[in-house]
Structures are given as structure tokens and as C-alpha cells.
From TrEMBL:
Residues 3-162 form the N-acetyltransferase domain. PROSITE patterns: GNAT. Keywords: Transferase. InterPro entries: Acyl_CoA_acyltransferase, GNAT_dom. This is N-acetyltransferase. One of its GO terms (molecular function) is acyltransferase activity, transferring groups other than amino-acyl groups.
Length: 167
């Protein structure tokens, strides 16, 4: 199934809200990713994501439809050679290798576009599917921090996976 990363468009609003408005997704995202996910939230997000140059946040397109999102966020100061990656995928598309392919495409884009040597992601310790995605995409577990994330009244372990430009 072909996976394409592209800029978000106002035409993506309905699919964005349809797939993002899911507590199973929001539960593994930071608090900037709300639940419920409303049309107003979606419009604001698309406007913000569309203004970046170079693009940092992409729609994940499958069969002509935006079914998830992925982004790379270069750091500053002494972390300036690093970028954090985050992603989500609509639940009907889980388990098909889509997000693994999107991660691989974003890693290639990140190293080509930004002056960075390391891309990292920080999945919840309970998000086994995301950990498998990162491993399949060549990321290595660098660290595990006990009970550092606080979401919906509970503490969760934070894992740090990373891939480096030159292995």
C-alpha cells in the first residue's frame, strides 16, 4: 500500500477530525493533541502546519486520503544536532506497515533537510506498537525513564528511541 508524506491541506479537515478524534490515539500523545478532536482544533492545526518552511509536519496519505500525521521538530541550543519525531495513525489503518513506512520516509527527509545527526522519538512504555514501529525503522532504544510522563491522572514510563545519520 503506497504511503505518501505531504503538506496538510484545508481539504483534509474532515479526515483529520474523523481519525484524530479517538481516545486510543490521544492517550499516547502529548497534551497538545486533544480529545475530543474538533473541527476548530483541526483548522488551527492545519493552518499552523501549513506555514512552516521547510515543512516539519506532514499528512500521511494512503489511497488519496490523509489518515495520520507525522512530524520532525529540530531542537535548538546544545541539542541543535537533534530532532524529535512524533506521529499518529488512524485506527482503521493500524497493523499494515503504514506508519513504519512513514517513519522511514521522514527519517530520510529529516537527514536530507536539516543539519542534524540524530532523530529521536519518545513513546510511552505501554505503547508496544509504537516501539515495534521504531525498531522496524532502525531506531535503537537509548534510554528508559520510569514514570516521567503524566497523562490522564497516571504516570507512564518514557522510552527514548533514536537513529543516527551515520549509524
Amino acid at each position: 500500500m503506497p504511503v505518501k508524506l505531504r503538506a496538510w491541506s484545508p481539504n483534509d479537515l474532515s479526515s483529520l477530525v474523523q481519525y484524530a478524534n479517538n481516545p486510543a490515539i490521544a492517550g499516547f500523545m502529548n497534551d497538545q493533541f486533544p480529545h475530543p478532536y474538533t473541527e476548530e482544533t483541526g483548522r488551527d492545526f492545519i493552518a499552523m502546519a501549513s506555514q512552516e518552511d521547510p515543512l516539519h509536519i506532514f499528512a500521511i496519505e494512503v489511497e488519496g486520503q490523509a489518515v495520520g500525521g507525522i512530524g520532525i521538530h529540530p531542537r535548538t541550543n546544545i541539542e541543535r544536532k537533534n530532532a524529535e519525531m512524533g506521529y499518529w495513525l488512524g485506527e482503521p489503518f493500524w497493523g499494515r506497515g503504514i506508519i513504519t513506512e512513514a517513519v522511514k520516509q521522514l527519517v530520510a527527509y529529516g537527514f536530507q533537510t536539516f543539519d542534524i545527526n540524530r532523530i529521536f522519538a519518545r513513546p510511552f512504555g505501554t505503547n508496544l506498537a509504537s516501539q515495534r514501529v521504531l525498531q522496524k525503522a532502525g531506531f535503537v532504544l537509548e534510554a528508559s525513564f520510569e514514570k516521567t510522563f503524566f497523562k490522564n491522572g497516571e504516570y507512564y514510563d518514557e522510552l527514548v528511541y533514536a537513529v543516527r545519520r551515520n549509524g
